[in-house]
Design goal:
The protein is built from two helices and four strands. By secondary structure, the protein is α+β, with helices and mostly antiparallel strands.
């Protein structure tokens, strides 16, 4: 999971980032070690995508460190 080319995250129900693999930094530019526990994932998801980001599989827009909105595919699961 850590060396995957796909972004893998674990997020609390309130949106707090608890785990992000190294692809997180390659794709979005954020250092996962700095963001875990402090980043609310919903702050980085395009506002129009909020209603379904934690409920559906599909493409969402996330902002990278340069301020550009990029499309990523999301999959949510509750454990």
């Amino acid at each position: 999971m850590h060396n995957s080319s796909e972004i893998v995250t674990i997020v609390d129900p309130d949106g707090t980032l608890r785990y992000a693999n190294s692809a997180w930094q390659r794709v979005l530019g954020y250092d996962p070690e700095e963001e875990i526990g402090t980043m609310n994932l919903l702050e980085y998801v395009h506002p129009e995508d909020h209603p379904h980001v934690l409920e559906e599989t599909g493409r969402i827009r996330a902002v990278n460190t340069t301020g550009e909105w990029i499309e990523v595919e999301g999959f949510a699961s509750t454990a």
